Automatic annotation (TrEMBL):
InterPro entries, per database record: Redoxin, Thioredoxin-like_sf, Thioredoxin_CS, Thioredoxin_domain, Thioredoxin_ResA/DsbE_sf
KW Signal (keyword) present: yes
Superkingdom of the organism of origin: Bacteria
Name by which UniProt lists this protein: Thioredoxin
Pfam entry (one): Redoxin
Secretion signal, residue range per the UniProt entry: 1-22
PANTHER family associated with the record: THIOL:DISULFIDE INTERCHANGE PROTEIN DSBE (PTHR42852:SF6)
Gene Ontology CC entries for this record: cell envelope
Cell location: Cell envelope
UniProt GO BP: cytochrome complex assembly
Length: 285
């Protein structure tokens, strides 16, 4: 399950609201009335972008024609500070954010939106969107430290029982750091297999450190006891603001980091058969 980044929500709302408004206006308007020139042109571009996205054509080069069309639309209506024109800049921003994946350019266009269309309906959420972009960028930087072959950047915390907790505590063992939560459906679905793998490989040198993104400590402890999960857990009750989730750029769970006996990362986000195979390689069948 993913962190509900406001950027993604903003994208969906931007398109959905725009299309809904256009549909409602079409119903309410006289039969001879037509959408504004800006709306009609923007809808045409949106349809082309959606078609390319469905075909997996989401690079800046692949979307060059659509981006040029948006720029031309903005230039043609540069003196108009309306919501319709602001929506053109919104779509350019979200194309970079959600499709191309260039958060720096996306942030720049959102700032432009705020500066050039401060009274628009779209500008009111820009500050929150920019904050979430910053979170995305920080997460991406943190994930860079989790490359296969790199030494795991350790932590020093306390587990649920108040005991010292770190990967280094299990030096020489294979360690699986498992980010999860009891409210996460895929995590709960995977847990029986995680338990089975622990039982299979623990005697050969596997240790697990759980990092729970739960908010309710009692519910977490009840789940752990019911499922006989004997490995240590880090818990701070902060949900998506969990300290270790933030430290390692985790924005989607379940998420795992597999670390060998030398403290080096051998895999991330391994689950199911892939995790079993990796453990078999490290610890033997």
């Amino acid at each position: 399950m993913k962190l509900k980044l406001l950027g993604s929500l903003f994208v969906l709302l931007a398109v959905a609201v725009f299309q809904l408004q256009a549909a409602e206006e079409a119903k309410a308007a006289p039969a001879e009335a037509a959408p504004s020139a800006v709306k009609a042109a923007l809808m045409a571009v949106i349809e082309k972008v959606q078609a390319k996205a469905q075909a997996g054509q989401v690079t800046e080069a692949a979307l060059a024609d659509e981006l040029k069309a948006l720029d031309a639309l903005l230039a043609a209506h540069k003196t108009e500070k309306t919501d319709d024109v602001a929506q053109v800049l919104v779509m350019k921003s979200v194309i970079y954010l959600e499709l191309i994946g260039d958060t720096d350019k996306a942030a720049g266009f959102f700032k432009q939106l705020k500066a050039e269309f401060p009274e628009s309906a779209q500008a009111k959420d820009v500050d929150e969107v920019l904050k979430m972009i910053e979170i995305q960028q920080a997460a991406a930087r943190a994930q860079e430290a989790l490359k296969v072959g790199a030494v795991f950047p350790d932590f020093a915390e306390k587990d649920l029982a108040g005991n010292p907790l770190s990967v280094g505590k299990f030096k020489g063992s294979v360690v699986l750091v498992d980010f999860w939560a009891t409210w996460c459906g895929p995590c709960v679905e995977d847990m029986p297999q995680v338990i089975a793998l622990y039982e299979k490989y623990h005697a050969r040198g596997l240790e697990i450190i759980g990092v729970s993104l739960d908010k309710d400590e009692a519910a977490l402890k009840a789940f752990i006891e019911k499922n006989k999960m004997t490995w240590p857990q880090f818990f701070d009750g902060k949900f998506w603001e969990n300290k270790l989730a933030g430290q390692y750029g985790v924005t989607s769970i379940p998420f795992t980091v597999l670390i060998n006996g030398d403290g080096k990362i051998v895999g991330t986000n391994l689950r199911g058969a892939k995790l079993d195979a990796a453990l078999a390689t490290l610890l033997g069948q």
